[in-house]
Specification:
The complex is a heterotrimer of chains A (323), B (766) and C (178).
Chain A (H helix, E strand, L loop, with lengths): L6 E3 L4 H10 L3 E4 L5 H6 L7 E4 L9 E4 L2 E5 L4 H6 L1 H6 L1 H7 L5 H6 L2 H5 L12 H4 L12 E2 L4 E2 L10 H7 L3 E6 L2 E6 L19 E8 L10 E8 L10 E8 L2 E7 L6 E2 L1 H7 L6 H7 L17 H17 L3
Parallel strand pairs in A: 1-3, 2-3
Antiparallel strand pairs in A: 4-5, 5-10, 6-7, 8-9, 8-10, 11-12, 12-13, 13-14
Chain B lengths: L15 H5 L15 E7 L5 E7 L1 H5 L3 E6 L24 E2 L5 E7 L2 H9 L2 E6 L6 H4 L15 E9 L2 H6 L3 E9 L11 E7 L4 E6 L4 H12 L6 E4 L15 H13 L3 E4 L2 H7 L6 E9 L5 E13 L5 H10 L9 E10 L14 H18 L3 H7 L19 H12 L1 H4 L7 E11 L10 E7 L5 E5 L8 H13 L6 E5 L16 H28 L6 E4 L2 E4 L2 E7 H10 L6 E7 L20 E12 L6 E11 L6 H21 L4 E2 L2 E2 L17 E6 L22 H13 L10 H19 L1
Chain C lengths: L4 H4 L2 H5 L6 E7 L2 E7 L5 H8 L18 E4 L2 E4 L12 E3 L12 H9 L8 H14 L5 H8 L10 H12 L7
Classes of the chains: A alpha+beta (323), B alpha+beta (766), C alpha+beta (178).
Chain lengths: 323, 766, 178
């Protein structure tokens, strides 16, 4: 399956990259390419130009900065999972990075790329030949959604692993574009909509992920963080449901991936847990609230009822492991 | 276990080094000067009349060298079973499934070919389609093929004994229904073909990733309307088949067609998605079993009704449904049996031979029902299997001749090894053990093309060249044949060089299917090697001053059995051979066809359908994650009677691969077809087991020595894929008390069943 | 509902002007290959079709099976979803660069001896992934082996002998992977 043709740029700096992204018509950034190139082979994404970020050194490195840990957007998932400092303080992130796809994908893929992956659906992530059996779907440039069976909507599901972990770690992202740098909570990166799932300018680059020290859990804190993934197989697959839990004392944060158009914090669950100590009884009591607030659609073949049960089960398992 | 000089040894595959260094050449690795690249255009509707095909834009694209549709090629159908031929290389007038080929294009590079294919527009008049065999057989259902009313393209009705009397004599009669799903073979190498044409003598050469070079040659001759003698099919290295590379495919026809038309070599390579949608898959099946048993659990009568979802074309239909029928008659004694099997057309991807070929499906049903019946009547499921076990030498209702049978031993050994007595019904909730049994033929006898030939040449320098028709697709057929020859001629493996599956050079063999290669082609090689001995040993006897039957041979040395110091080397003998003016190379010829007392045809008569039969019991221990529904297969073990293994390492490899495929069948793999289209035609979405799904595996050798198999061997390639799935689902039943009647058993089904169980328990508690 | 593929396949028809071919220098197994590629050529395509190194296999072309695994600067990557142009300036090692002349590496020999291959199509990918692992960790535990090789699919062997072969090298053979 050949890639479509495109122009290719290899800037040596972030400034150059941003310039190219803003000046070259239809240009998109690419790093590892494990998401974008597959979608391009399927011709659901066909950028006229790719701007490679692999030589942009500003995207590398893990460093400490003013009460936070800053992970360059270009850091590979392999490096994220092997970083001892991250593992000690933010284990959910380490765990999430270590279960993305296969070790090959972790070697090639970057943290930013994993966060920015496109939403997915069994009608969208298919070749042009496969999709030509039916009308072009809304996300791919047509009008109709084959899941919702109506026009003008898209419920493509977000399936990234690291986003759930970073949401419970209260991470922020730093983004640089032609209008300068902005930094904001990770949750705001996601529009919550399936067709255009990212709130990112077309010439913006996600340069760093910032995790505040207050999210760090280590030997001293009464808690920890974890990411639990359920997929069909033990490797290669996207999560059917992924659950991340962070706990420090009586504060608990929960996030899910694979269940809606964006990764999200389980706000109903968190409210029920607010100020309460996490115990097996409490976990059992609130677990049924895990699926509240998400819109699960049949973008995958698994039934919604199953995914909702999984959300409760994975929350309980993740939370239970932090007791 | 026999361990001889070469046979019985754990010899690496003769081409292992070529493969492990990347030098082995598979079809897509072959490059010919001037080669063109082809791409197929496929139907986007499940059932429709072709109204028009516009190829003008494709033809106009620079670099495109040719475009054809079904109306440009001869109106000839083909198929692997002559009486069931129903496929055109490119659809004429009608398409019958999403993925059906309608046009082909070749261009100077792959990129242009793909682009050109996308520029071809086809207009269809959509017809009502049918997606389930039980709907397809109903009155008024759309006809997939006009000449097949009721959409049943093959069927079999067999009666043995007296069914009604059997039920009347039974203490219990149970009826249960089951469903098994579509599994894809998913060989690592996608299908490919490369053709080349010599205009001077009209010779066509096709390199194809095929399991059936000789049948392919025949089908090409029929469809291209070229004499068979002008066609040479060469099988390069093949990256797995499992049955999916049995059949001619559009890529074979179109590569040849264009090579002849354009006078240039042409290559077609399928995308993985095309392999999922448009090659073959395991037939989904609906099965109903009505079984009468005594109160001890003896099976007295059984009626099996099976509807196989054939998809849009026949492929092996009559053979599949017949195998499905006959091989429920082993490994249990069933005196009174009625089997009604139907192969039904639907507007879906095509069912074909897949490892086990129509037998895993009824095997699942039978093995599940045995467990269910055992529980219902209060007998032990392992004991029940022993009670019904076939023994060697007993008369058989269908006329099978079972010379060796380690089945009862396999039940005992497998049960012991899995810890049946300690674990069955006794493990904590969520953990369980199960067993299931199977038997498989070593190739089916008494069909056309079932003879196999072999030529062995011993040259003056001691090189042993073997020409065999055997199609090695990775299972090691060439290696096994080389071992047999090496053993009999008395040389080490490295002296044997095998050329196989080249129809221009090698004698006929039917191909790799039905697990018959070791017995059939192995015996042909054995006969050829014996022919070498018959010519050589008189010279050796002269040299050693002994009788021919006193000679032992190994490692290029001949010696007198009772006086080993009297010996002579191969080199010396070959020199002597020349001096006495005998011609070299010494050429040995051998052929073999399965023995039969009377002519039977599998599809119409009973009789001994296989030279011999393997037997096995597989046992599984599972742990069910009660919160997520995931089933963790902890261990699978196989007590296996495959006769004397020619190469124990290769037999283990077959077993281990079979089991993982069986685990996939039970739990992970499902070619999900919705409205005629596969929704997961990729390695990402399909559920092909990874190394993370690997359980502990154990093999227990049950020793028998078969008189018909070469060196006592029986099949070892397919039987072991029949029973892992029922063993696992039986173990799940032991673990959580839920009887699943369908495959695959997925986490959502487990959670739904556990929920229902809790609700019922709560209901009863009130 | 019949959609037409052409509506969606904008692709190269108008795009022929863009992404023109250029000459890339790819350092493969120590040799510099000059190949002519457009940016949309994957490393797998460049290796197989331009450099005629066909040992690296195409199993799915979408990064889901590992048959296309090669080493790039020592890291095992999926060449079917790597652009050839990204491999310029890096050192690529394919299966052809693992054996030393006619001599198999200890890992390759272990695969042969243990029967860890049948059809052999997945084997080059496994060798590259396992070579990376053993270079990093000469004595990995079984769980680590499974995790690191889980991205390589095999249909024939059931993985048992592959794990045994890697373990054999991990547990004792001197030299390990090359």
């Amino acid at each position: 399956m050949r890639l479509p043709r495109f122009e290719y740029y290899q800037p040596g700096s972030l400034a150059e990259a941003v310039t190219m992204l803003s000046q070259v018509p239809g240009a998109r950034p690419v790093a590892g390419g494990t998401d974008l190139l597959v979608n391009m082979k399927h011709r659901v994404e066909q950028p006229a130009a790719l701007v490679s970020l692999t030589r942009v050194s500003e995207l590398a490195g893990v460093r400490l900065e003013d009460g936070a840990t800053v992970i360059g957007g270009g850091v590979t998932l392999k490096h994220v999972q092997h970083d001892e400092g991250l593992k000690a303080r933010f284990p959910a992130l380490t765990q999430a990075a270590s279960v993305v796809g296969s070790y090959r994908h972790q070697t090639m893929g970057t943290l930013a790329g994993n966060l920015l992956q496109n939403t997915r659906c069994r009608f969208f992530n298919q070749s042009v030949e496969w999709r030509s059996v039916r009308a072009l779907c809304y996300k791919a440039g047509g009008d109709y959604c084959h899941v919702m069976k109506k026009e003008g909507v898209c419920f493509c599901t977000y399936h990234g692993d690291t986003a759930a972990a970073l949401l419970v770690l209260d991470a922020e992202v730093r983004v640089e574009g032609p209008d300068g740098v902005r930094q904001f909570p990770l949750a705001q990166l996601y529009s919550g909509e399936g067709k255009a799932p990212l709130s990112l300018g077309s010439a913006e680059v996600l340069t760093a992920v910032i995790i505040p020290d207050s999210s760090a859990t280590d030997g001293d804190t009464a808690g920890g963080s974890t990411y639990v993934k359920h997929a069909l197989r033990g490797a290669i697959d996207f999560p059917i449901v992924g659950a991340a839990v962070w706990r420090n004392g009586d504060a608990t944060r929960v996030a899910f991936t694979g269940v809606d158009r964006s990764p999200l914090r389980a706000t109903v669950l968190e409210e029920a847990l607010a100020g309460r100590a996490l115990t097996p009884a409490v976990i059992e009591e609130v677990a049924p609230l895990a699926p509240k607030g998400v819109t699960i659609t049949r973008t995958t073949v698994q039934p919604g009822s199953f995914k909702r049960e999984l959300m409760s089960a994975l929350f309980a398992r993740a939370a239970g492991s932090l007791l | 276990m026999k361990v001889l000089n070469v046979v019985g040894q754990r010899v690496p595959m003769h081409d292992a080094a070529a493969k492990i260094t990347g030098q082995a050449q598979y079809t897509d690795d072959l490059v010919l000067p001037g080669m063109l690249f082809g791409k197929l255009v496929r139907s986007t509707v499940a059932h429709g009349r072709i109204k028009s095909i516009d190829v003008s834009k494709a033809k106009a694209l620079p670099g495109v060298k040719g475009v054809i549709t079904g109306m440009d090629i001869p109106d000839r159908v083909y198929g692997i079973v002559p009486k069931a031929k129903d496929e055109h290389a490119l659809a004429r007038e009608k398409v019958r499934y999403i993925g059906d080929e309608v046009a082909a294009v070749v261009a100077i590079d792959q990129e242009t070919a793909e682009e050109a294919a996308r520029l071809i527009t086809v207009e269809y008049e959509e017809l009502p389609a049918v997606f389930d065999p039980l709907d397809a057989i109903k009155e008024g259902a759309p006809l997939v093929h006009e000449n097949t009313p009721g959409n049943v393209s093959a069927q079999i009705h067999k009666e043995f004994g007296d069914l009604e009397a059997g039920f009347a004599a039974s203490d219990y009669v149970f009826e249960d229904s089951y469903y098994t799903h579509a599994q894809n073979h998913a060989p690592m190498e996608p299908h490919a073909a490369l053709a080349s044409y010599d205009a001077l003598n009209g010779d066509l050469t096709l390199w194809s990733g095929t399991q059936i070079p000789y049948f392919l040659k025949r089908n090409l001759s029929t469809t291209l309307v070229i004499p068979e003698q002008n066609i040479r099919v060469i099988k390069p290295k093949v990256g797995g088949g499992f049955g999916q590379k049995i059949d001619m495919f559009a890529k074979d026809f179109c590569a040849c067609w264009f090579a002849k038309e354009l006078g240039r070599p042409v290559k077609f390579l399928y995308d993985r998605e095309e392999v999922f949608q448009s090659t073959r898959q395991r037939h989904p099946m609906y099965l109903t079993l009505k079984t009468g048993v005594s109160k001890e659990g003896k099976i007295i009568a059984q009626k099996i009704t099976a509807h196989a979802d054939g998809g849009a074309y026949n492929s092996t239909a009559p053979l599949m449904i017949t195998l499905s029928c006959f091989f429920v008659m082993i490994p249990y004694k069933i005196e009174n049996l009625v089997y009604e099997g139907y192969h039904v057309y639907t507007n879906k991807p095509v069912g074909g031979a897949m490892r086990g070929h129509g037998i895993p499906q009824p095997r699942f049903a039978i093995e599940r029902q045995i467990d269910q019946i055992a529980k219902r009547i209060g007998v032990d499921a392992s004991e029940m299997r022993l009670l019904n076990a076939i023994e060697a030498g007993e008369p058989h209702p269908a006329g099978f001749i079972i010379n060796t049978c380690g089945f009862a031993d396999s039940v005992r050994e497998a049960s012991k090894a899995i810890g049946w007595a300690e674990k069955r019904g006794k493990l904590p909730f969520g953990r369980g053990v199960g067993i299931a049994c199977a038997s498989f033929p070593s190739g089916v006898a008494n069909m056309s093309h079932l003879a196999s030939g072999c030529v062995v040449q011993l040259s003056s320098e001691g090189r042993v060249s073997v020409l065999s028709g055997a199609a090695d697709i990775g299972q090691g057929a060439e290696t096994v044949i080389a071992q047999i020859v090496a053993e009999r001629v008395g040389v080490p493996m490295e002296d044997v060089h095998i050329t196989a599956a080249d129809t221009g050079l090698c004698p006929l063999d039917a191909g790799t299917f039905g697990s018959g290669v070791t017995v059939r082609a192995g015996n042909a090689a054995l006969n050829a090697a014996n022919d070498i001995r018959a010519q050589l040993f008189p010279v050796v006897a002269e040299a050693l001053g002994c009788e021919v039957d006193e000679i032992e041979a190994a490692n290029r040395l001949f010696w007198v059995r009772d006086d080993p110091d009297r010996s002579v080397g191969m080199r010396d003998i070959l020199r002597q051979y020349q001096y006495i003016d005998r011609s070299l190379p010494i050429v040995g010829r051998g052929a073999w066809v399965p023995p039969a007392d009377s002519a039977t045809t599998l599809l119409t008569n009973n009789g001994n359908l296989s030279p011999n039969y393997s037997f096995m019991t597989q046992a599984a221990e599972v742990e069910v994650d009660l919160e997520t529904g995931r089933v963790n297969v902890i261990k699978v073990l196989t007590a296996h009677d495959c006769g004397q293994p020619i190469n124990p390492m290769l037999v283990e490899g077959q077993l281990e691969g079979s089991i993982l495929g069986g685990i996939g069948y039970a739990l992970y793999e499902d070619s999900t077809c919705i409205d005629g289209q596969q929704h997961n035609p990729s390695f990402l979405d399909y559920g092909f087991p990874t190394m993370m799904e690997l359980p502990e595996m154990e093999g227990i050798h049950i020793d028998t020595d078969d008189p018909i198999g070469p060196f006592g061997a029986k099949e070892a390639g397919e039987g072991t894929q029949l029973a892992p799935a029922p063993a696992i689902v039986n173990a799940i039943a032991d673990a959580i008390g839920v009887d699943f009647d369908r495959l695959p058993v997925t986490p959502d089904m487990i959670l739904a069943a556990l929920k229902k169980q809790r609700e019922e328990a709560a209901g009863e508690a009130r | 509902m019949c959609a037409h593929a052409t509506a969606q396949a904008t692709g190269t028809e108008k795009g022929r002007a863009m992404g023109a071919k250029r000459i890339l220098t790819l350092n493969v197994n120590g040799d510099d290959y000059e190949v002519v590629c457009a940016p949309n050529t994957t490393l797998l395509e460049a290796l197989r079709e331009k450099a005629f190194l066909t040992g690296t296999k195409r199993g799915c072309d979408l990064g889901a099976c590992g048959a296309c695994t090669v080493l790039m600067d020592g890291e095992a990557i999926l060449s079917c979803i790597t652009l050839a142009v990204e491999a310029e300036g890096r050192s690529i090692r394919t299966i052809e660069g693992v054996s030393d002349g006619g001599e198999l590496s200890p890992l390759q020999q272990a695969f042969v001896d243990h029967g860890a291959l049948q059809c052999g199509f997945c084997s080059p990918g496994f060798i590259m992934s396992a070579t990376e692992l053993l270079a990093e960790n000469p004595h990995p535990e079984r769980a680590e082996i499974q995790r690191r090789l889980a991205g390589n699919l095999c249909r024939c062997t059931g993985y048992v002998k592959i794990v045994e072969a890697v373990e054999a090298v991990a547990q004792g053979a001197e030299g390990g992977a090359r």
